[in-house]
Hints:
Blueprint lengths: L7 E2 L19 H18 L7 H8 L12 E3 L8 E2 L13 E5 L4 E2 L3 H9 L8 E5 L5 H10 L4 E6 L2 H10 L6 E5 L10 E10 L4 H6 E12 L4 E9 L18 E11 L9 H12 L10 E6 L10 E5 L2 E5 L6
Parallel strand pairs: 6-7, 6-9, 7-8, 9-10
Antiparallel strand pairs: 1-12, 2-3, 2-4, 4-5, 10-11, 11-12, 12-13, 13-15, 14-15
Helix pairs in contact: 1-2, 2-4
Amino acid sequence: MGHERLTIGDVDDHPANIESIRSARPATPEQQMTARRWYAEDLRLQAHVRRNMAIVEAFAAVARERFLGRGPWRIVSDRHGGEFFLTPDDDPRWIYHDVLVAIDPARHLNNGMPSFWARNFDHLDLKRDQRVMQVGAGTGYYAAVLAEIVGPGGRVIAVECDEELAARARVNLAPWHQVDVVHGDGRTQDPGEVDVIIVFAGSTHPAPRWLDRLAPGGQLLMALTNEKRWGFLLRATRCRDYDAESIVLPAAGDRNRFDAVSIGRVGIFPCVGGRDEEAATRFQQALDGLGSDFAEVPIEALHRGDPGPEVVDKVWYHGPDFWLERKEAATE
Length: 332
């Protein structure tokens, strides 16, 4: 599946002039811990983390340099058209900013923008002791962050299709015993029942396995993207099990219906095996109806299967074996 590559979201960051922030002398262990804490608190502001402060603590706990290879590193300090530059030395304080760090420049593989993923995690109901599947683990950095969030009683299944990256992730994640690194296809990998699935790559449609394995109340976060790799982040939530005697809304018991919402625009690399040409055309047509600077996608539910003639007027987008229901306009 996808890797940690250049990922762009609607999160403002201003990491300019970072050279003036660090000292020319190598950092002591205490200074590195201080740098990680500063970095995590800065991400809290850059990503607007409001709901789950465990995300901030997780970024403060994980040594990012462990997952990036030995420095110096190639980093981008300005995602708005910035170019990679090589850090003068291997002082880890260079990478404790909201910057992209190259993993494999030849393949355009990067560690991902921390504020982007911090923001995304805050839009999920991540808790201790949960079971999380990450599709596109790369070298393991965000799997470690997720492992810190769910704690030792939780479980993270980190799937990576690239054999070399999966091997690196397995070594890097050795201290986190709650993480299982799997070399395989994240669209077909069976994690068993999980509470959260996070996909680090763009597709035209969700894999059936992802929807199959979500527990009641479970959440899927994935990017729906066009041929130019742009689109929006879709959060789909399975309705919880209910007591038939007390339920009010029958839709809450439909295992083929998921509450759905867009949490922002995204540009991200494509997911291997996750693209359908005909669906991509329909998706682009749906995006065109929003305008180039859309802020919201008018959807309210994800349905499995194909829409019948009785609901054709409710379809916002129809992809392979699923469709998104259009949100009804508010009436005054």
